[in-house]
Structures are given as C-alpha cells and as structure tokens.
Protein: Myb/SANT-like domain-containing protein
Amino acid sequence: MEEEATEIVKLKDLSGARWDEDKSMIVLDHEHYTNHVKAHPEDEQYLNKTIIHYKEMMYIAGGSMAIGQYAKDSSDPLSTEVVNLEEET
Structure:
C-alpha cells in the first residue's frame, strides 16, 4: 500500500495532470495520457480512473510522503551512524 500511495503522489505531480477531488482521479488529456501510458504502462491503473479507497489509503500511508532521494522504505535503517558503546563520554 505504501508503494502504491507513493506512486499516486508522484503521478498527481505530472506535468499537465489535474486532480479531481470529487472522483479521486488523476486526469490527463488524451494526448498526455496516451504518451505517458505508452512510456509507463504500469501507471495506467491510476490515470483517468477513480482510485478506489484513495482517501483511506492516504489516511493510512500519508499524502505528503517523501519521494526521490529522501524517500525511505520501511526496511531502510533510520541511521547509518556507528556508535561505539565501549567508549567513555
């Protein structure tokens, strides 16, 4: 669910995309839709279709998640700093 929510957040920011709040739908005009789906067929399920359970998904996963270089997976470590427990402070 987390990956799906991240993908939806990214797609909402596509150039030319419009968000239809009433239908929970990412809307692209025909030309943008056709070109994007040709290049990214896996995104078709989220474009120009109602995203079922969108509000619940954003409530659980969050609608303002980090993407790109700042994104962390749930299995990523919170820190890579090594602490020497034997050293006196």
